[in-house]
Amino acid sequence: MENNKRRDGLMYEHERYEPSNIKKQVIISILISLGTTIFIFSIISFRGISIDLSVFRLEWLVYGIIFLILAWIVDGVRVYLSSRAWNKTITFEQALKTVLSGYFMSTITPSATGGTPAQMYVLSRSGLTWGEAGSLVVVCGILYQVSLLLLIVVFIFLFDIRVALQGILLKLLYTFAIFYSIIMFLLFYFLYRPQVLYRLTNWGINFVKRYFRRAKFSEAAVRTWVEEFFDDFRRGFSILFLKKPQYLAWNLGCYIIYFILFFSVGFCILKALGANSPYLRVISAQIPLYYIFGFIPTPGASGGVELTVTSVFLRFTGPQKVGMYVLLWRVATFYFPLFLGGYAFFRIITGQKKPSMKKYHSRLPDEEKNE
Q1: CA distance 317 to 323
Q2: Which of 120, 165, 256, 289 is 20 to 30 A from 143, alpha carbon to alpha carbon?
Q3: Residue 72: what pLDDT?
Q4: Rounded to whole angstroms, how far apart are CA atoms 281 and 283?
Q5: Which pLDDT belongs to residue 99?
Q6: How far apart are CA 6 and CA 371, in angstroms?
Q7: Rounded to whole angstroms, how far apart are CA atoms 80 and 96?
Q8: Helix ranges restricted to H, 239-335
Q9: Consecutive 10-residue runs of the chain (371 residues): their mean pLDDT?
Q10: How is residue 126 annotated by DSSP?
């Protein structure tokens, strides 16, 4: 009985989210974002530049919010239909909660790293295994980056619009390309050489046993979970890349539509402030930024995002309106998903019970079951 309790605790340790810790992360992320925005306004004020809102148009803000909501709906539909690749059916509400939870955790974790585990968590509560949820989210993460790359190519060769970055922003983009290439190499290396992953698992177990002797867990349970997760993960890659590639095309198309809708929010805010900038140039200016934001180590990239957007959009707004643009853009793309996604995610982590452990126990050795 005691071993069963330990095994249960071990299996679900990766699934636990502590509301108190999440609330602290929310506060830190908001404080950094607000502090940076106030800093931008103070610099503008210090230079004696007055904020010009004489041509403010509220209806364009409404259009921006509509574009944002449409982008979320497209993202939700993408997840809703993609789950069918595993012959699993989730509701659109569950799919929308998945993407909103991902947005929320991305806004409060360093380099937006919390979005992927959060989406896996919600999908695992919706009927997919952890391996299936992991393969879906990881493959979609790859397609997320590929769709941004496709947009850059389209804007350069089809619309003849340069996507120009200079200085540190260009260096960050190159760094991202190198880092992402390494991650992709390691991912596919483990997919084709799973025994390396299993050896690493054994090394990790021995390391914990040697240096953290008070840690109590079942070695068999750890190995069983890793094997099940990785088997489902590999099967998911096989489904998406070999058996049902139409879901790859579906995700790419949805991501491109999502980004166009999402980037249109920035254009609407410019129009609301009376800045008449070409639509395609505004869209193209935002595409490479979303590669760079992933390298900003603060929660939700707060601070770095505001400064980066200020430097890029200064040429569209002028010094009189750039501070207000950053504030409105951050409210729409940061605070709105932060609070709405947080509401959805907190309801999930506080209102659902853990699934049964029977399928894990059935894979354990007989001596483990009888202990």
Answers
A1: 9
A2: 165
A3: 96
A4: 5
A5: 95
A6: 11
A7: 8
A8: 246-272, 279-286, 289-292, 304-317, 322-330
A9: 39 60 87 86 65 77 96 95 87 94 91 86 89 85 85 77 58 68 75 79 82 75 78 78 84 94 95 90 88 80 87 86 90 93 90 47 46 45
A10: T
Contact yes or no for 139/237 (Cβ under 8 A)? yes
137 with 119: CB under 8 angstroms?
yes
Report CA 328 to chain centroid distance, whole Å.
21
Alpha helix positions (H), the chain = 2-13, 19-46, 58-82, 92-108, 115-125, 130-157, 167-192, 194-211, 219-238, 246-272, 279-286, 289-292, 304-317, 322-330, 336-351, 358-361, 366-370
Nearby residues of 95 by Cβ (< 8 Å), 6 or more positions away: 76, 77, 78, 79, 80, 83
End-to-end CA gap in the chain = 7
Environment class of 269 (CB within 10 Å of its CB; exposed 0-12, middle 13-18, buried 19+): buried
Name the token pair of 235.
């099967």
What pLDDT is attached to residue 205? 82
Asked if 313 contacts 285 with a C-beta cutoff of 8 angstroms, the reply is yes
Residue with tokens 């992953």: 197
User: Identity (one letter) of the amino acid at 68?
Assistant: L
Question: What pLDDT score does 267 carry?
Answer: 95
pLDDT, position 254: 94
Q: Phi and psi (nearest 5°) for 299?
A: -60, 125
Place of tokens 């025994």: 195
| C-alpha separations of 3 from 20, 81, 258, 278, 360 in Å | 29, 40, 47, 65, 13
What integer pLDDT is reported at residue 334 of this predicted model? 92
193: left (phi over 0), alpha (psi -120 to 50) or beta: beta
Tell me the residue ranges of DSSP E strands in 145-216. Answer: none
Beta carbons within 8 Å of 186's beta carbon, 6+ residues apart: none
pLDDT at 187: 73
pLDDT of residue 258: 96
Gap between the Cα atoms of 28 and 6, Å rounded: 34
Instruction: Report whether 288 contacts 153 (CB < 8 A).
Output: no
d(C-alpha 244, C-alpha 227), whole Å: 24
Q: What pLDDT is recorded for position 170?
A: 60
Handedness of CA 154, 157, 158, 159 (dihedral sign): positive
Query: Quick one: 157 exposed, middle or buried, by C-beta within 10 A (0-12, 13-18, 19+)?
Result: exposed
CA distance 55 to 272: 8
